[in-house]
Fold:
Amino acid sequence: MAATWLIVGLGNPGPRYELTRHNVGQMVIDELASRRGEGFSQHKANARVAETWLRPGGAKLVLAKPNSFMNVSGGPVSSLAKFFSVAPENVIVIHDELDIPFDSLKLKSGGGHGGHNGVRDVAKALGTPEFARVRVGVGRPPGRQDPADWVLSPFSATERRTLGVLLSDAADAAEQIVDEGLTAAQQRAHAPRA
Structure:
């Protein structure tokens, strides 16, 4: 039987945050669900979940959007991992990343949280930092704008023009991690665009 993968998009709950940079991880989860014609239902682990497959006969995917605020994402992620019997090495966390320019992706597994409180909380709750991350670049704020205000603001009109491609690339990267492993997915995601 194919393995089960838990793919989590970090973000904040509610319409106020829905289209902000901090919620780009949840936007990628929406893209993955929409590719499969799946909707979300509430799960007792305090998350919205869609259960689906990579492809018919392929790995099972549990697509999840925690209902908690970003900085306390660990509880729902850990509860879902336990509920679906998913080991940390089969968890993929998709999140915004200030230190990566907008419209870029970086994939990694393990290592530090880079000051990202959502990732920090997930690592603490899982008891290990050894899970894959799809880091979606949102870039640094212009001028002296506070990074916290920046990530909680919506994408600009210019960014929105290419946001769909970025979300699609991030969804592709998550699928490739499941399908081909992290190294192969990194080679594709980190290659310069033609």
About this structure: The mean pLDDT is 95. The longest helix spans residues 157-180. The chain has one domain: 4-190.
